[in-house]
Amino acid sequence: MSIYLETERLILCEYEYSDFDALKAIISDKEIMSHFPSPYDDEGVKHWISWSRKGYLTYGYGFLAVILKSSGQLIGNAGITPQNIHGVTRPEIGYHFNKAYWHQGYASEATHALKRWGFVTFNFEALFSYMDKDNLPSIAVAKRNGMHLVDSYFDHGEDLLVYSISIKEFINQK
Asked: Do 91 and 111 meet the contact criterion of CB atoms below 8 Å apart?
C-alpha cells in the first residue's frame, strides 16, 4: 500500500529516504521549528523519516511529504499522527512547510485533504491539532480547517491550545 493524496496544487505521499535533504531544510530550520523544543539534526531527520514510515505500516498513516505539483519539489510535510494531547493519544493533523512557501494557502490545502482522508478512510470520531498559544498561523489554519478550540493546558513550559473537529461537524460542513 502506498499513501497518496492529491489536491489542486499538491501531492501528499509517503516519505522516501531520498527526501532527507529537502526534509532537513525544513525541520532543521530554527524559525520553522520555533514552536518545537529544538530543530532537528541529521540523526533527528533520519529518525523523522523512519518514524513516518513506521507509522504507515503500523497505523496506515503518518507524516507525508508534500510535493508541489507545478515543480515536483518537496515543500513541506503534513500528516496525521497519534499524539499525546493532554494525556490522551489522539489523531493529530500536523504540518511544517519550507519558509519560501508560507502564506500561500498550502498548509490549509494540505490539512483539508488530511481531514477528509482521516474521516473517510479511518472513520475517526474526531481529529485534533494542538499548538503553542502563540502560534497564530497554526491557529488560523486549524480554524480554516473547521476546527474549534476544545481545550488548553500547560505542558513542558508551554501553554498549549487544542483544536478539534468531529466527524459529525465534518459531515455537516458539506
From this structure: no
Q: Report angle CA 61, 36, 102 to the nearest 5 degrees.
A: 75
Displacement of CA 104 from its chain's centroid (Å): 16
H-run or E-run covering 115: helix 106-122
Sign of the four-CA dihedral 164, 174, 143, 54:
positive
- The residue to which cell 527526501 is assigned: 19
State which amino acid sits at residue 157: G
Note the pLDDT tens digit of each residue in 4-58: 899 999 999 999 999 999 999 988 888 887 777 778 899 999 999 999 999 999 9
Domains annotated for the chain, with CATH where assigned, are 4-173 (3.40.630.30)
Residue 94's nearest CA partner among 156, 44, 32, 1 is 32
